[in-house]
Amino acid sequence: MDLSAINPVLLIASLMVAATPLLLAAVGELVVERAGVLNLGVEGMMIVGAIGGFAISVESGSPYLGLVAAMIAGAVLSLLFAFLTQFALANQVASGLALTLFGLGLSALMGQGYVGIKPPAMGKLDIPILSDLPVVGPILFGHDPVLYIGIALTAGVWAVLKYSRIGLILRAVGENHDAAHALGYNVIRVRVLAIMFGGACAGLGGAYISLIRVPQWTEGMTAGIGWIALALVVFASWKPWRVLLGAYLFGGINVLQLNLQAAGIAIPVEYLAMSPYIITILVLVIMSADKSRAPASLGRIFHASG
Amino acid sequence: MKLTKILTSAVLATGLATAALADKTKVGFVYVGPVGDGGWTYEHDKGRLAVEEAYGDKVETVYVESVPEGPDSERVMTDMALKGADIIFTTSFGYMDPTINVAKKFPNVKFEHATGYKTAPNVSVYSARFYEGRAVQGTIAGHMTKSNVVGYIGSYPIPEVIRGINSAFIHARKVNPDVQFKIVWAYTWFDPAKEADAAKVLIEQGADVILQHTDSTAPQAAAQAAGNVVTFGQASDMSEYAPFPRVSSIIDDWAPYYIARVGAVMDGSWAESNTWHGIGDGMVGIGEISDAVPADVKAEALALKAALADGSYHSFTGPLKKQDGSDWLAEGETADDGTLAGMNFYVEGIEGDVPQ
Amino acid sequence: MIKLEKRPQPSRKLSLATPLIAVFVTMIAGGLLFMALGKNPFEAIATIFWEPLFGEFAFYYRPQLLVKGGPLILIAIGLSLGFRAGIWNIGAEGQYIIGALCGAGVALAFYPMESFFIFPLMILAGALGGWAWAMIPALLKVKFGTNEILVSLMLVYVAEQLLASMSLGLMKNPQGFGFPGSRNLQEYPSAFNAELIAGTGMHWGVLFAFIAVIFAYVLLNRHILGFNIRLTGEAPRAARFAGVSPTRLVLFCLGTAGALAGLAGMFEVAGPSGQVSIDFNAGYGFTAIIVAFLGRLHPVGILLAGLLMALTYIGGEIAQSNMGLPAAAIQVFQGMLLFFLLALDLLTNYRIRFAVKGAA
After folding, report:
1. Which of A29, A251, B82, B85 is most deeply packed, by most CB within 10 A?
2. What does the alpha-carbon distance between residue B1 and residue C192 come to, in Å, rounded to a whole number?
3. Tell me: domain A3-122+137-287, CATH 1.10.1200.10, correct?
4. Which of chain A's residues have a Cβ under 8 Å away from the Cβ of C346?
């Protein structure tokens, strides 16, 4: 046993990387759920983003073009879900599950020619002096650009939800779609846009895995991260900054347990691995006493009968 | 109950007989992952393609990928047998009992189960002595490490993986008495993101050589990003990361075995067998040792490989002690296959416990 | 401008016709997909839908439809009760795992004793295990008002980790040379869920699935509890006025769904699968949600939907080995089938009117 082998600075820096795909997907899903829609297809959108981004960046040689393509791929796939739930008024749980099934299959078909290829590398944001600072350097200034985008996105979503008119409308739609409709807001349009935003974020999160964190393409490579993102939104009680915190916690538990193992400490891995989910359930219970509960219209179908 | 069972097998057998009239030898493959996994299943599929290449028009191969272990695999095997497959390769440990079940119903079809231990008159098992490759890797790793910390990413704590750890450790210690192993269990065969994390963690804790017993190239990429860390390819060559960080690899080469077994079916010489082949028989390949390895180390590794191949040296040769200090192998004694097959202990010098 | 108008009553004719239309449309879209992959679309479609039912080896595939469809139907029936009442249990996968672990646990505890009471005890344990696992979201919902969708989903992952822990630890076969996975219950006569009539695929689980279909049908159509379930789903406020206790309904629906999922897991582990292993759960719990919706939450519909889903799985495997179609293409094909079914469902509940633009 040798706890001193664990370098806390590097631990924090690497858990930030591990948390980023989770964060991106969860912030997107948060917006979707705040609009009153439950999209269980995050995993499907992520993996389609992963291959979409991978393919385009390999073909074009530009990782940035790949990231944009991943966002488009995720958004386009999410339109399928939007059509089913918003226009065909289908059940959201079933539609989301179908989307994941479809996305996993589609990505595997798209990716057949991309196994065993290395994508173009994306540089780190090495800022000459800042990145070399002790402690804060590796934690704050030594990452790839997308990681910062993830944090900026969280801040942006927080600000928009809290202070802007768009945020107000979005929340109104999520809390009570009938009232929002009566006030003259176009519930369907707001929700479709929210769903597309969620799709784009999930796609970007997927591409982060295939282009930066791993980087390679293999079938099924998101390996359940989309599902954890769903848990994370609940864990965060639909609040952006808590999503960030939760992403670091969820990502951190995994990095931490690997660190403990490497340091030679015997830990029951399975029980540690289930702990984020149990914590999420506890948070749900604690939250039930709190006023910040789920958006009231979450998962309910809206049809303007007027 | 028994009678009806016999009747069903009779019915099934007739179905088989009618279908087997075709003169081509039909070969079935059941895969646990997608052929595009770039690792385990990918290599088995390369073996399948080699069979097609070797026999051309005389064989027909079929495969089903991503077959869950359990009843689904049983159905896929039965389907192949019904359609006249002459020999079926089932390529995951979890297919063991289903293979035995289906084999009972189709006594005329030959079955080959990878990495299992149950055989029958028409069921053979085959596996590779990957630990021989680990000995070569351990030798290189012991020389290459400057920090004297070697990181090891394990999948599940099962005998095959533990064997690999022990073999690598013994040979790393042989050339470098100060070397330490840091072992991390990923509890997955395949999860690139988690494997990448595991590699990063090991690197952060000072490992400058990473050995992996999981199938994705994610650890290679993590090592490359770190800059000065040595890795080895696993299952497939992973040559896209050569010459550095990947300095060599263990390759599962199933082609010679598959070609031989299909050939045996063709000429009627197929018989139940329990095959455990290593470097000598070509089932375990050592990927090219790149120029990043000093010439004398490379020569030493190749000499070890040659000794393993011609049988003059065994990866587990005494004197060896178990982790708890008790004697395992006396001077010059080599481990028997039974002990190796069920290996659930570390050798002396490895820190930490095998998770139970 | 297209306008939707809610039908006062769901159209009966269309609710029967839309699944058929959806299957047909999927065949066309799937055919195009298979063509794009360079395969003969007619052959592919025929392989998936015709081969298992009427092909040369149908005598083998037909029973397999029951083996594959049985657990799907059993779980989906339980889920549909809750779905009808607006109670969303999407954690059947977890309840299935726990049921299997409890059932197998009983068997392994008695091994190698042979006795008639072991199998009934396993059934009981399986149902109880699934029930208990479903009671967690149920009680939390009743006590604290937590969202059962999320809690039940979280518990799936907890159950998966438990499964891994059991296969590597407590339930590991002592004679298995250290490999993960329990003893094979197929080799333990007292615990083996064998086929009731050899060669038919009918094991106890399939029988239970059929019983569940009948039970659910009677419950929903002839019993006050079924009426309350439907009322709560369709008009929650009216239900409250009518004195329906939401608490009891939540406990009943989630409990039943959990017990049935647990049973499905127990029959699977004691029969077709035979052992507890890390990858024991093959997604039945999630697929059953889809089956429940495909069957429009109607017991008979679920029976047919479960068999249809099983058909696409089995037919898909045949298409893989016969025609070399990739597994992913089959997955996409199943996804399309769901999309079309869900989309066309609209027609049952709504009328589509083409109104002049501008006229609200």
Report:
1. A29
2. 14
3. no
4. 88-90
The two beta strands, B320-321 and B25-30, are: unpaired
Contact A58, A86 (CB under 8 A): no
Q: Taking the domains of chain B in order of start, what are their residue ranges?
A: 2-128, 130-248+286-341
CATH topology of domain B130-248+286-341: Rossmann fold (3.40.50)
Distance, CA of A240 to CA of A252 (rounded, Å):
18
Query: How far does B320 lie from chain C, in Å, by closest CA?
Result: 21
Residues of C numbered 30-49 whose beta carbons fall under 8 angstroms of chain A's beta carbons: which are they? 37
Q: Do B79 and C60 touch (CB under 8 A)?
A: yes
Range of the domain at C320: 40-324
C-alpha distance from residue B128 to each of A143, A150, B254, C210, C264 (Å): 41, 45, 9, 46, 37
C169: nearest CB among B28, B68, B356: B356
My answer on whether omega of the bond before A268 falls inside 30° of 0, hence cis, is no
Rounded to whole angstroms, the maximal C-alpha distance in chain C is: 78
- C-alpha to C-alpha distances, A29 to A106, A157, A292, C284, nearest whole angstrom: 21, 11, 17, 25
Report d(CA C162, CA C311) in Å as an integer.
Answer: 31
The CATH number that domain B2-128 falls under is 3.40.50.2300
pTM for this prediction: 0.86
Nearest CA in chain A to C2: A87
The CATH number of the domain holding residue C179 is: 1.10.3470
Tell me how close the Cα of A60 comes to any Cα of chain C, in angstroms: 24
Answer for the pair B5, B203: CB distance below 8 angstroms, yes or no.
Answer: no
Angle, in degrees to the nearest 10, between helices C92-110 and C246-270: 50
Q: Shortest CA distance to C268 belongs to which of B70, B264, A279?
A: B70
Full pLDDT tens readout for chain A, 306 residues = 466 667 788 888 888 888 999 999 999 999 999 999 999 999 999 999 999 999 999 999 888 999 999 999 999 999 999 999 998 888 888 889 889 989 999 998 898 888 778 888 776 666 666 666 666 767 777 788 888 999 999 999 999 999 999 999 999 998 888 888 888 889 999 999 999 999 999 999 999 999 988 888 888 888 788 988 988 888 888 899 999 998 988 888 888 888 888 887 777 777 877 887 888 888 778 877 665 567 877 877 777 654
Exposure string of C79-116, with b = 16+ CB inside 10 Å and e = fewer, is bbbbbbbbbbbbbbbbbbbbbbbbbbbbbbebeeeeee
Which DSSP category does B289 fall into?
A: P
For CA atoms A216, A218, A223, A227, give the dihedral sign.
Answer: positive
pLDDT tens by residue, B149-179? 999 999 888 888 999 999 999 999 999 999 9
For B303, half-sphere exposure in the C-beta direction (CA atoms, 13 angstrom radius) is: 7
**Residues in chain C within 8 Å Cβ distance of B67:** 317
- The tokens describing B29, both together, are 């493959």
Which candidate, B317, B270, B337, B287, places its Cα nearest to that of B127?
B337
Do residues C265 and C95 touch, judged by C-beta distance below 8 A? yes
Looking at beta carbons, which residues of chain C come within 8 Å of A91?
Answer: 293, 342
* Structure-block tokens of residue B67: 């077959």
CA distance C266 to C108: 13
CA dist A60 and A72 (Å) reads 16
Domains of chain A, by residue range, sit at: 3-122+137-287
* Among A102, A108, A287, beta carbon nearest to C339: A102
Q: Which residue of B has its CA nearest to C161?
A: B187
Residue A47, chain C, CB below 8 Å: the answer is no
ipTM over 0.90: no
Count of structural domains within chain C: 1
Contact A280 C154 (CB under 8 A): yes
**In-domain check, residue C276:** yes
